[in-house]
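Prompt: Have a read of the protein record below and flag anything odd:
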Amino acid sequence: MSTLPGWLAGLGAGLTRISERLDERREAAADDLSEVPATAPVRDSVPAPPAYAPAIAAGPEPVVAIAARPDPVLAIPWGIRVAAEAGWRLLVLGGTLWVLMRIISAVQLVVLAFVAALLVTAMLQPTVARLRRLGLPRGLATAVTAIAGFVIMGLVGWFVVWQVMDNLDNLSDRVRDGIEELKRWLLDSPFHVTESQINDIAKNLSDTIGTNTEEITSAGLQGVTVMVEILTGILLAMFSTLFLLYDGKRIWHWVLGLVPAQAREGVAGAGPRAWGTLTAYVRGTVIVALIDAIFIGLGIYFLDVPMAVPLAVFIFLFAFIPLVGAVVSGALAVVVALVTQGVFTALMVLIVVLAVQQLEGHVLQPFILGRAVRVHPLAVVLAVAAGGLIAGIGGAVVAVPLVAVTNTVVGYLRAYSKEQTLHSTPPPHSAPTAEVASAPGPSPAAATAPVAEEGV
């Protein structure tokens, strides 16, 4: 029993030494971790161990840590991010266009009158420039040109109305005869149409007209309102044309003053080119329409179709609506020939119309209009359809010149932006300064070459 206290004392001393050794090892491990150099490579996604974490006593195993979560933006694929960036910009652009179209619809009469004034100015402005070169003052040249142009357009309109009213009785008689001939043809045709069915159709038409008298009357009143709006638009277009012819340059400089200074130089270069495109389009369209009206009118006249001259004038006016106008005016001439002269004459008129239109599409337009206003046929069709849906006949008339001008402006601004980027890019460090300074560039004469005649 006397050895038991000594054994317990030895066990306690051994446990004390073990505890001291463990403490020494912990302190040594902590000193090793604190002596790691600050420049040691550490992964970005692995955070540093906290100060209170227990250190590993021994062994070469690395410290295990949980990787941090990536940025949510980086988790989205690149294509989706690009689509989202483009999507919200397209939404802003679409909203801006929608608001702009709403504003234009609210003041549609003013916008169409001003656009018509631009087209008339583009047609008359070269005459003003020639008169000024002959020595006439600006005011006198503008007055002479405007009065002559308005008188000619008014005489054309009066001539059309006079011819229609003068031949209206003869045309109604021929239409009646044509309807009777069509009725006889239907009775003898293989469609097995009976006279009672034809009479029922005529009676239904008469009843429809009789029951809708009130609607027809309201339509007539609405027609009076439309006539008032047309007269108002004509007056606005005339006044706008006068001011554009007389003071076009000052108006253009005032518009440039509204443009931000950084974009003013590009807009100032795009303006004359846009005006040159518009002038070329109006001149070419007038010449092509005049040729169409003369040749088709002569064909109709020699085929003894009534109202040949008014039909020729209608062909001239409808030629300002690309594609659609030619189809409508040609169909009108064929229908008049069919009703008044029969199937053979209508077929001959159709041949004449198609021949002249083929000549126009493949020879006249490429030769007269040239590449300055060349627009793809699909763009023409879509522009005419959109313009007609938005603003009716007026929108269909101005759609194609608007597309041609926009094409010219966008092309010039794209080239101008590339040129500015090249000028702003510093030369490479390997190229000598003298060589860069002596590099050939656009000549001042080419940079300042006039694009078109003096415009608005």
Summary: The two ends are 128 Å apart (CA to CA).
